[in-house]
């Protein structure tokens, strides 16, 4: 390995960073519209919504779980806020009720998965269906117009030429990077994902921490849903339909392992940017949304295979070092 590669490895730069750079260069050469200010802002805003939803997903995957309800929670929270505003309730009340709905779904997920040990795929698939159904019921199956200018400012307003939405995203990501990297809760998350048995033996309350993780997932999904409704000036009961898949993709592409205990938010940031740059570039090339999903799916499979092969190689190297040391 060259000295430059060794330095890059020590810097812990997520692999998706190189993907972001390569895609940016590629699409810049393919289309002169890619570097337009309008397209850059479009990428930044769409990345912000997905990244907020992916914060909670990162935490869930770090503890070797999954949350399929993220997209439905986004829809439900947006619809609840839209209904509240439509009926004359204040913005703070609408936001709080939307967030409360997300946390409530997170609590239910946590109880089923952490407390009662139900399968997390089935459990979160069930709450996904419930949240999606409630969103349709509350919205009467229709998109709710959100005409409140103050609420719309959160998703469309600017400060110093930059969207408020981007400021909110940066603040939330910075806070959670600190939480994951510098607090006991963050340490517990990585410990549980690394080895649940070891975490239990070291005195970590696995049930409680998994509960908190699912609550965080519901919290950030609800915030993303509220901002999505704000940005679009409307609350659709199916607005978050694709976000569960996209959030999982962003986290996995960003290098967080499905096995848990490895990865983090910096990788998710890069995974999100990579996804949205890819989507933007493919749109400019006229490639349909169906093929875009297929391309992203292939990318995820390739990353999972690469991750598995890398882990296998590391285990072989560890065994060789152990054998060499003993002899």
Task: Give your account of this protein's structure.
With 327 residues, this protein is mainly alpha-helical. It has one domain: Orthogonal Bundle (ABC transporter involved in vitamin B12 uptake, BtuC). The protein is 77% helix and 2% strand. The chain contains 14 helices and 4 strands. The chain has helices at 3-10, 15-30, 37-62, 70-86, 91-115, 120-138, 149-156, 164-182, 184-194, 196-201, 206-232, 243-253, 265-284, 289-326, and strands spanning 144-145, 158-159, 162-163, 234-235. A two-stranded antiparallel ribbon has the order 1-4. A two-stranded antiparallel ribbon has the order 2-3. Helix 4 (70-86) runs parallel beside helix 6 (120-138) and helix 12 crosses helix 13 (265-284). The protein starts with a helix and ends with a helix.
How would the blueprint of this fold be written?
Blueprint: H1 3-10, H2 15-30, H3 37-62, H4 70-86, H5 91-115, H6 120-138, E1 144-145, H7 149-156, E2 158-159, E3 162-163, H8 164-182, H9 184-194, H10 196-201, H11 206-232, E4 234-235, H12 243-253, H13 265-284, H14 289-326
Antiparallel strand pairs: 1-4, 2-3
């Amino acid at each position: 390995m060259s000295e430059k590669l060794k330095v890059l490895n020590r810097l812990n730069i997520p692999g998706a960073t190189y993907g972001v750079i390569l895609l940016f260069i590629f699409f810049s050469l393919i289309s002169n519209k890619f570097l337009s200010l309008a397209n850059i802002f479009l990428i930044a805003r769409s990345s912000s919504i997905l990244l907020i939803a992916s914060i909670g997903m990162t935490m869930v995957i770090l503890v070797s779980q999954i949350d399929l309800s993220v997209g439905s929670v986004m829809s439900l929270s947006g619809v609840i806020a839209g209904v509240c505003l439509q009926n004359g309730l204040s913005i703070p009340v609408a936001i709080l009720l939307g967030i409360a709905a997300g946390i409530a779904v997170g609590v239910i997920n946590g109880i089923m998965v952490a407390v009662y040990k139900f399968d997390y795929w089935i459990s979160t698939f069930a709450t996904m269906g419930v949240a999606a159904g409630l969103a349709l019921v509350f919205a009467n199956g229709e998109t709710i117009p959100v005409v409140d200018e103050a609420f719309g400012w959160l998703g469309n307003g600017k400060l110093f030429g930059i969207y408020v939405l981007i400021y909110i995203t940066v603040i939330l990501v910075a806070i959670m990077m600190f939480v994951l990297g510098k607090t006991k809760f963050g340490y517990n998350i990585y410990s549980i994902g690394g080895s649940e048995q070891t975490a239990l033996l070291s005195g970590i309350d696995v049930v409680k921490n998994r509960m908190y993780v699912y609550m965080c997932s519901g919290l950030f999904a609800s915030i993303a849903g509220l901002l999505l409704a704000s940005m679009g000036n409307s609350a659709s009961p199916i607005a978050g339909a694709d976000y569960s898949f996209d959030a999982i993709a962003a986290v996995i592409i960003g290098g967080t392992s499905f096995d848990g205990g490895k990865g983090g938010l910096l990788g998710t940031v890069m995974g999100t940017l990579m996804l949205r740059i890819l989507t933007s570039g493919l749109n400019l090339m006229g490639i349909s949304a169906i093929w875009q999903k297929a391309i992203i799916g292939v990318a995820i499979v390739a990353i999972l295979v690469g991750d598995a092969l890398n882990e296998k190689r590391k285990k072989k190297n560890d065994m060789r070092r152990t054998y060499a040391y003993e002899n």
